TrEMBL record:
<comment type="function">
    <text>3'-5' exoribonuclease that releases 5'-nucleoside monophosphates and is involved in maturation of structured RNAs.</text>
</comment>
<dbReference type="InterPro" id="IPR001900">
    <property type="entry name" value="RNase_II/R"/>
</dbReference>
<dbReference type="GO" id="GO:0006402">
    <property type="term" value="P:mRNA catabolic process"/>
</dbReference>
<comment type="similarity">
    <text>Belongs to the RNR ribonuclease family. RNase R subfamily.</text>
</comment>
<keyword id="KW-0540">Nuclease</keyword>
<dbReference type="Pfam" id="PF00575">
    <property type="entry name" value="S1"/>
</dbReference>
<feature type="domain" description="S1 motif">
    <location>
        <begin position="644"/>
        <end position="725"/>
    </location>
</feature>
<keyword id="KW-0694">RNA-binding</keyword>
<dbReference type="GO" id="GO:0003723">
    <property type="term" value="F:RNA binding"/>
</dbReference>
<dbReference type="InterPro" id="IPR013223">
    <property type="entry name" value="RNase_B_OB_dom"/>
</dbReference>
<keyword id="KW-0378">Hydrolase</keyword>
<dbReference type="InterPro" id="IPR012340">
    <property type="entry name" value="NA-bd_OB-fold"/>
</dbReference>
<keyword id="KW-0963">Cytoplasm</keyword>
<dbReference type="Pfam" id="PF17876">
    <property type="entry name" value="CSD2"/>
</dbReference>
<dbReference type="InterPro" id="IPR040476">
    <property type="entry name" value="CSD2"/>
</dbReference>
<dbReference type="GO" id="GO:0005829">
    <property type="term" value="C:cytosol"/>
</dbReference>
<protein>
    <recommendedName>
        <fullName>Ribonuclease R</fullName>
        <ecNumber>3.1.13.1</ecNumber>
    </recommendedName>
</protein>
Length: 730
């Protein structure tokens, strides 16, 4: 019996032998193999299997699929064209490759994925057949791993361990030898590094680098989010020490090299909980009917010098990361919250864009350069908003940072009101040029001292926010134009945004059509105006968040590059990031390049800066994912305390395994699994964005209002599951 079983197992390995041998030879197509090496790769060593391999090799040679390069040694005949692309893996171990060679994504079945993981750059070839109309291929090799570090929960056994990754896209558990477990205890959340994936091993081998803590605990989960995306937590000791030794005093010698604007009326407007103020506005009424408005930005590049450990660290981070309960800054606190922060009643080194503007909000003159400034006052957005709404200089205690009603100086109140008036003109001009107005509602949490979420509130953009936004946009645009229009062309850091893809717009129309909205695709102008109308029409409606999110997703992603193509969403031909160097490295680079050109310098090396732009775009993407994960985590924690309550939600997504529901009151999104809906057998209807009951024909469709109750909250996997109680009857 034992022998029969063994033989059957060995025959399984030999079944479909032609494809297996071809796959081995194609995968390493520059090498030649004899029958023994192929048998070893297949893990068989009995005579019968070896004979079959020898026979198959001769058959493949006769068909000219392989060639015998020397006696008994065979190589694949490569007629196939190989392509490269990026793998988007699924939790089932299959995936899709996004490749510039094909308009459609290429499906890869799990048995053809060949150890590639999500995000890897891979080489693949296409099958001749198209399965159900879609392209299908096989991965031949991994060219570059997207990541080697994963967060997961460790399962300890007597002489080995497994780490079960948190990410649903990591379809394999990671094997860890007992001597590489780093004293982790069973059930700990850990950071594991992939080290090897032996040919015959089902799972990759790894080493536990860090024990993050017990799953579900707040600090463990927040650190896990940072670790998952390879984002830092603390500054290395030597970087902190270097930053602490920097001379941050304001000296006469340095002031003498700068334009002195300390006498100009200057103030900051920021979120009430902000610690780093990286921009200030100055306002002076000129005699010729013009206003001189200065946009003053923290002069980070004065302190952060190239080729220092501080600059290297800032570049690696490339951005500050804003999680629900903390900021992971790009620069150490001595700079971000102190020396570079434009705090009230302190002299600061700044880099400024100063404009002379008329009452029509037209720029009549401009100046860029290093300055020294003095901020006369600091306002929270809510305080500036009170001035705009009341048209007085009184700040009521409800919004006051001090908690008491107070009066700001009349000349500051007048400045805020004039700046608001000019900002509204600038904004309306932008909208007429085809800019798109994204005012997406932001979800924020009220946290207690232990970081427990005790409430949810929505942050919306009011006039005071838009005032600051318009003047920052003006500075960013004018700096980019100043350098970008120089002849001969000079290398610079641009923030670009490509036009949306037609197919994505068509998909958006398909969804918003369900709610009765129509988009016009006749030309660029009609696309932007119909998108703006859509975003305006949904304000306050139940489907607003869904439509806002889908519209943003239909857009291209903004990114950093030295190749300017303009900014579609803002309708600007030239745009850069200049106004936030405390929290964004591209702004630091923009400051350095601008100063270099003001000093008459030659064009900088484009290839070097393009690489830095790509790194900055990539880090921004990871930071955004971490920020989203932290919001999702906090939403799940919030819902843990509301397990027996009923909520009204909107169906925000429909799949063949269930429906996603977003609660209207708090924007928390969870899933109702099809198997949990008991009143019928529901099937997914892709064309209608719906699930439909087989017997009752009862339909749950995208955008429907439904009533749900919490079924399960999983902080570790960041899953929120609902029970569906039925449709909402108003």
């Amino acid at each position: 019996m034992g022998r029969k079983k063994r033989r059957r197992r060995s025959n399984n390995k030999i079944s479909n032998l032609t494809n297996t041998i071809l796959s081995i030879l194609k995968k390493e197509r520059n090498k030649s193999f004899n029958y023994k090496q192929i048998a070893a790769k297949l893990g068989v060593n009995d005579a019968s299997s070896r004979n079959q391999i020898i026979k198959k090799l001769q058959q493949l040679k006769a068909k000219k699929d392989i060639e015998e390069v020397e006696r008994g040694k065979f190589k694949a005949v490569v007629t196939t064209q190989y392509h490269t692309g990026i793998l988007d893996a699924t939790s089932k171990g299959s995936g899709y490759i996004i490749s510039e060679d094909f308009e459609d994504d290429v499906f890869i079945a799990s048995n053809n994925i060949n150890r590639a993981l999500d995000g890897d750059e891979v080489e693949f070839y296409l099958f001749k057949r198209r399965k159900r109309g879609k392209l299908e291929g096989e991965i031949t090799q991994v060219l570059k791993r997207a990541k080697t570090d994963y967060v997961g929960v460790v399962q300890l056994h007597s002489n080995y361990a497994f780490v079960i990754p948190d990410s649903p896209k990591m379809y394999k558990d990671i094997f860890v030898p007992i001597n590489k477990t780093n004293n982790a205890e069973d059930g700990d959340k850990v950071l594991v590094s992939l080290e090897d994936w032996p040919e015959k091993a089902d799972s990759p081998y790894g080493k536990i680098r860090q024990v993050l803590g017990k799953p579900g605990e707040h600090s463990t989960e927040i650190h896990s989010i940072l670790a998952e995306y390879g984002l830092p937590h603390d500054f290395p000791h030597e970087v902190e020490a270097y930053a602490n030794k920097i001379d941050t005093s304001i000296t006469k010698e340095e002031i003498a090299k700068r334009r002195d604007m300390r006498q100009d009326l200057t103030f900051t407007i920021d979120p009430k909980d902000a610690k780093d103020f990286d921009d200030a506005l100055s306002f002076t009424v000129l005699e010729n009917g013009l206003y001189e408005i200065g946009i003053h930005i923290a002069d980070v590049s004065h302190y952060v010098q190239p080729n220092t450990i501080l600059d290297d660290e800032a570049y690696e981070r490339a951005t500050s990361v804003y999680l629900v309960d903390r900021v992971v800054p790009m620069l150490p606190e001595i700079l971000s919250n102190k020396a570079c922060s434009l705090r009230p009643n302190e002299e600061k080194y700044t880099f400024s864009a100063v404009f002379k503007i008329n009452d029509k909000a037209e720029v009549k003159d401009q100046w860029f350069g290093r300055t020294v400034t003095y901020s006369d006052a600091r306002f929270a957005y809510e305080e500036a908003q009170a001035v705009i709404e009341s048209k007085t200089n009184t700040i009521p205690k409800e919004v006051s940072l001090t908690g008491d009603t107070y009066q700001t100086k009349q000349d500051i109140a007048d400045a805020i009101l004039k700046l608001d008036e000019l900002a509204k003109k600038m904004r309306s001009k932008r909208m007429r040029s085809g800019a798109i107005s994204f005012d997406k509602v932001e979800v924020k949490f009220n946290l207690d001292k232990d970081n427990n979420p005790i409430g949810v509130f929505f942050k919306t953009s009011k006039d005071a926010n838009k005032l600051i936004e318009e003047f920052m946009l003006l500075a960013n645009k004018k700096v980019a134009e100043f350098v970008g229009k120089k002849k001969p062309e000079k290398t610079f850091i641009y923030r670009v945004h490509d036009e949306p893809d037609d197919s994505k717009l068509a998909a958006l129309q398909n969804v918003v059509g369900r709610f009765g909205y129509k988009l016009n695709f006749k030309d660029r102008k009609s696309v932007t105006s119909s998108l703006n109308n859509l975003l305006k029409d949904v304000v306050g409606k139940k489907e607003q968040n869904l439509v806002d999110t889908l519209t943003i997703r239909s857009m291209s992603k903004a990114e950093y590059t030295t190749h300017n193509i303009g900014h579609y969403g803002l309708a600007f031909g030239y745009y850069s990031h200049f106004t936030s160097p405390i929290r964004r490295y591209p702004d630091v680079m923009a400051h350095r390049l601008l100063q270099h050109y003001l000093d008459g310098g030659k064009s900088a090396n484009e290839a070097i800066y393009e690489e830095k732009c790509q790194h900055s775009s990539n880090m921004e993407y990871l930071a955004t994912k971490a920020e989203r994960d932290s919001i999702k985590y906090m939403q799940i924690r919030f819902m843990q305390d509301h397990e027996n309550e009923e909520f009204v939600g909107v169906i925000s997504g429909v799949t063949d395994w269930g429906i996603y529901v977003e609660i209207i009151d708090n924007k928390c999104e969870g899933m109702v699994r099809i198997r949990d809906i008991k009143d019928d057998y529901y099937e997914f209807d892709e064309s209608q964005f719906a699930i439909i009951g087989r017997e009752t024909k009862h339909m749950y469709q995208l955008g429907d209002e439904v009533v749900v109750k919490v079924k399960d909250t999983d902080l570790v996997k960041k899953h929120l599951d609902f029970y569906l109680l039925g449709k909402h009857k108003e």
